[in-house]
Amino acid sequence: MTQYIVLSAILFTIGCVGVLTRRNAIVVFMCVELMLNACNLAFVAFAKQHGNLDGQITAFFVMVVAAAEVVIGLAIIMTIFRTRRSASVDDASLLKY
Amino acid sequence: MNLLSQSVLRAAEGTEIPVVAPDAGAGGVFDLLWLVIALPLLGAFLLLGVAPFLKGSLKEAVDKHGHLLGTATSVASFVLSLVLFVSLLGRGEEERQIGQQLWTWFETATISVGMDLLYDPLAALFLLLITGVGSLIHVYAIGYMEHDPRRRRFFGYLNLFVAAMLTLILSANFVGLFLGWEGVGLASYLLIGFWQHKPSAAAAAKKAFVINRVGDIGLSLAIALMFATFGTTDFAAVSEVAGEADQGTLNALGLLLLLGACGKSAQVPLQAWLLDAMEGPTPVSALIHAATMVTAGVYLVVRSNFIYELTPVAQTAVVVVATVTLLWGAILGCAKDDIKKALAGSTMSQIGYMMLAAGLGPAGYPYAIFHLLTHGFFKANMFLGAGSVMHGMNDDVDMRHYGALRKAMPVTFLTFAMGYLAIIGFPGFSGFWSKDRIIETALAENLFVGLLALLGAGITAFYMTRLMLMTFFTEKRWAKDVHPHESPKVMTFPLIVLAALSVLGGVLLLGDWIKKWLEPVTGTVEHHEPPLPAIVITLIITAVVAIGVAAAWFLVGRREIPREAPQDVSFATRAARADLYGDAINDAVVVRPGASLVGGLATFDRVGVDGAVEGGSAAVGGLSSTLRRVQNGFVRSYALSLLAGALLVVLALLAVNLG
Predict the structure, then answer these.
(1) How far apart, in Å, do the first and last CA atoms of chain B sit?
(2) For residues B352 and B344, what is the distance between their CA atoms, to the nearest angstrom?
(3) Any idea of the CA torsion for B260, B266, B270, B273, to the nearest 10 degrees?
(4) Residue A95 belongs to what H/E stretch?
(5) pLDDT per residue as tens digits for the range B111-154
(6) Neighbouring residues of B163: CB distance < 8 A, sequence distance ≥ 6
(7) Which residues cross the membrane (chain A) (predicted)?
């Protein structure tokens, strides 16, 4: 049990650090997916331990949401790349004070 | 002071205060009572409310002939008043209070105010005076305002005034009285400032309005106090229950009503507006500021007799105010070179006499009203005479530019002379009877006040003789291009009628008629014997008047009158020319402290309130412009703050759950 949780924590941390440090939008996106899946792992693990299906169901929901998010997110990234020839998140900083 | 109040207290004892008990079902001609007010009101509505919206030839016709409509409504009102008066004469003494309930004006859970009228002997006399003198002055104004392009409007205002004044007189409760009270104030304001293109007229109108507001506060507070104490302001109800109120309330009521009366009747300390009010056209001065409106204060005191009889304090205050005013006005009259202002000072002084009589209680009420009527005749007569003189002298009002007008204007001179003889109290003329009775009553009630009133009679004789000499006698001092001429018939006719009334007004006193007539309103009183037989007092008064006339002859008539007012005059003359520093006192006591207070408040508002509000908003603005730097557009920094926030939430949850 502990192993699952530790793995989930490690994966989440990697994802978190990736989101904060990487500039490439695609990589940031992958890191977000990593964090989501780390959560899924934790959900499933806990579901197994508690012996009910709540966590499993939640994991399915997360997957559906992640799929929708990927569709929209990738579309946005594609559009930005087409207009600016860059996928760096720091370049798209016009929406500010 | 002690002497004074004791004497007035004595007068209040053994007095039966009559209760107002109107008979609502009189029927007959009395059902038309409302029409007396409605007629001039209709005239005012047509001339002021409808006429401005007319177009083309119709409008021209109304502008050209509107004055006839205004005069007709006033005359019709007079005829109706006359019929009503005769009908009232025909009723028994006990049935001479007639009520008419028109409609409920407003109603709340606890109070109800009706639009009710009360026609009694007091109102009957006032109705005749207002509509009678009012109609004569309407006729006079046809000639006087002939060349004024706004004559239609002028007559509309006059009708409005008459309607408001009649409302004041006929109302059966204090709220309705207040409606008329404010109405005449408005009409007075509009008419003083009728020639609004003159800054002095506009300022005078404003001054009259503002000073009258001070008095009106007194009256409205009195009404509020009546609602609080009695739950009603009907004369009938209040006169019945007034005795049950405690002394403090009654004193306050009396003094507040007196404040109202002071404002409207130009009594000290609210006297300063009356002399300036002479900026209005002369018919206005005659009607509003001599014969009718300014006597409303006297009416108020006499009408509220059921309150004043119970409060010796307020009665004493009335006497003091009246005595001061009658001397104050007389002194002003002695120094003014402006003929209308000299007459205005005289008006103030004569109203002082009426107030004095009214303050003396039931013994004086009939004489207050008697003097009010005779004064209405002779003062309107003299004001219209002064207007006629101005008409002939190219609107010059300075008596130093007159002189020897008796030959140029014989009718004006003769009618004016009748008014003059009446006001100084020449034996046989109306003023002689009325003033004589007031001084007699004053002497009987209080020697000191009586002597001051006697002194006032002497000063009256002096200033009126001075006015007469400077205007109609002495040598010509006319300006070069002035050609005095007699006024047209439409102006001299009212003069003749009023002169006849000035001479004959005394008949009202025959057999003490007016005293008996007013008894249902003013009550009976045990008679106080004056300190001397009446005939001796009359002789003394006549002697004092003769001294006043002689003094004027020696000081004014025999000497050469310079065309410019001499400047090296005594302190007394300078003071009187400056209205006894009435304006200066107002300025020092009210205007300047008021201005400082307002200035202080404005500074506090600007520095204190605005400072706090604007400082607060500046602080919030500065803080938010610093905070918005956080929105820097970098997604990763948002992500970091998101993470920090999430960590914070987690830590908090942990702290709560584990702690």
Answers:
(1) 86
(2) 12
(3) 120
(4) none
(5) 889 899 999 899 999 999 999 999 999 999 998 888 888 889 99
(6) B37, B38, B40, B41, B43, B44, B183
(7) 6-21, 26-47, 59-81
**Contact status, residue B464 vs residue B424, Cβ threshold 8 Å:** yes
Residues B588 and B205: their CA atoms lie apart, in Å, by 21
User: Residue B18: is the preceding peptide bond cis (ω within 30°)?
Assistant: no
Rounded to the nearest 10°, the torsion over CA B130, B136, B137, B141 is: 150
**Do residues B127 and B36 lie in contact, with contact meaning Cβ atoms separated by under 8 Å?**
yes
> Does residue B343 contact residue B383 with C-beta atoms inside 8 Å?
yes
Which residues constitute the domain of residue A27?
Answer: 2-84
* Rg (chain A; Cα; Å): 16
Q: Which residues of B touch A89 (CB under 8 A)?
A: 634-636
B404 CB neighbour count, 10 Å cutoff: 15
pLDDT digits (tens, 9 = 90+) for B359-393: 988 888 999 999 999 999 999 999 999 999 998 88
Span B461-491, pLDDT tens digits: 999 999 999 888 888 888 888 888 888 888 8
With tokens 């990763």, the residue in question is B636
Contact assessment for residue B405 and residue B413, using Cβ atoms and an 8 Å cutoff: yes
Q: Which residues contact B285 (CB under 8 A, 6 or more apart)?
A: B277, B278, B340, B343, B344, B383, B387
Q: For chain A, say whether B634 makes contact (Cβ under 8 Å).
A: yes
Does the residue A96 lie in any domain? no
| Locus of tokens 């020696």 | B554
Task: Please state the pTM of the whole predicted model.
Answer: 0.79
Cross-chain residue pair B643–A20, CB shorter than 8 Å = yes
Q: SS3 string of B551-610?
A: HHHHHHHCCCCCCCCCCCCCHHHHHHHCHHHHHHHHHHHHHHHHHHHHHHHHHHHHHHHH
Q: Does A48 fall in a domain?
A: yes
Q: What region does B176 belong to: left with phi over 0, alpha with psi -120 to 50, or beta?
A: alpha
d(CA B82, CA B26): 17
* Residues in chain B closer than 8 A to A16 (CB atoms): 643
Q: Are residues B483 and B353 in contact, defined by beta-carbon separation less than 8 angstroms?
A: no
CATH number for the domain that contains residue A39 = 1.10.287.3510
Number of domains in chain A: 1
Please state the φ and ψ torsions of residue B484, each to the nearest 5 degrees. -60, 140
B628 touches chain A (CB under 8 A): yes
Mutate to test the interface with A, among B629, B634, B636, B643 (most CBs of A within 10 A): B636
Strands B112-119 and B98-107: antiparallel
Structure tokens at B236: 């009938």
CA contacts within 13 A on the Cβ side of B658: 6
Contact at 8 Å (CB) between B301 and B359?
yes
Is-contact B208 B224, C-beta < 8 A?
A: no
Mark B191-206 as b/e (b = at least 16 C-beta within 10 Å). bbbbbeeeeebeebbe
For B11, B271, B328, B359, B377, the CA distances from B352, given in Å and listed in that order, are 20, 11, 9, 10, 17
In sequence order, what are the residues at sequence separation of 6 or more whose Cβ sits closer than 8 angstroms to the Cβ of residue B216? Answer: B181, B182, B185, B260, B263
Cα distance between residue B391 and residue B495, in whole Å: 14
Q: Residue ranges of the alpha helices (H) in B425-488?
A: 430-445, 447-472
Residue A49, in any domain of the structure: yes
Domain membership of residue A89 (yes or no) is no
Q: What's the distance, CA B315 to chain centroid?
A: 20
* Cβ contact B636–A97 (<8 Å): no
B632/A96 touch (CB, cutoff 8 Å), yes or no: yes
**Chain A interface includes B657 (CB < 8 A):** no
Q: What is the ipTM of this complex?
A: 0.86
C-beta separation of B306 from B197 below 8 A = no
